[in-house]
Amino acid sequence: MNQRLKKILAPSLAIALLAGSASVLAQQAPKPENLIKWRQSAFQIVAWNTGRIKASVEGTYNKDEVQRAANVISAIANSGLGGLFAAGTEQGKGWHDTSAKPELFKDPKKFADLNASFGKEAGELATVAGGGDVAAIKAQFGKLQRTCKSCHDDFKSKD
Question: Which of the residues 9, 37, 78, 119 has the least number of beta carbons within 10 Å of its own beta carbon?
């Protein structure tokens, strides 16, 4: 490539690289309101699937329904959900005002431990659901609900 062409292209290349880098950085640091929306959405999906399991184990049992719902909960619980509680999301609005208590952001170790328990119990529920033993599913579902409750008790504002 000749020198003249290099001089013409170099600034354009630098601008393109900067724009690409800015785009990558913007993707790595979502806006707080997006993080709040995403976590609110994830927990709505968990709640819906929890209701599906509860209805099936307390009513007419449907193994496929329970398995699908348990798989969804496990996938969400083990997806890195804790990353949606980043600094800067202590207050704010996603679909609605956040219900996360400030204490969540002051005790990240406890939150991480509760989040890990959620993932573990959700994964176990998906495994147990595959067996179709309603008593075992109810027992594991109870363990999962206790992990949810302990996190809510410590870190979620009452509605």
Answer: 9
Q: How confident is the model at residue 158 (pLDDT cuts 50, 70, 90)?
A: confident
Q: Give the separation between CA 99 and CA 121, rounded to whole angstroms.
A: 23
Distance (Å, whole) CA 56 – CA 69: 10
> CA 55, CA 124: separation in Å to the nearest integer?
19
Summarize the confidence of residues 20-29 as an average pLDDT. 57
Split into its structural domains, the chain has a count of 2
Q: Please, what is the Cα angle at 134 between 129 and 140, to 5 degrees?
A: 60
Specify whether 18 is located in the same domain as 48: no
Q: How far is CA 129 from the centre of its chain?
A: 21
Give yes or no: residues 94 and 140 share one domain. yes
Q: What distance in Å separates the CA atoms of residue 70 and residue 108, rounded to the nearest whole number?
A: 27
> Can you give the pTM of this predicted structure?
0.81
- Number of alpha helices (DSSP H) and beta strands (DSSP E) in the chain: 6, 0
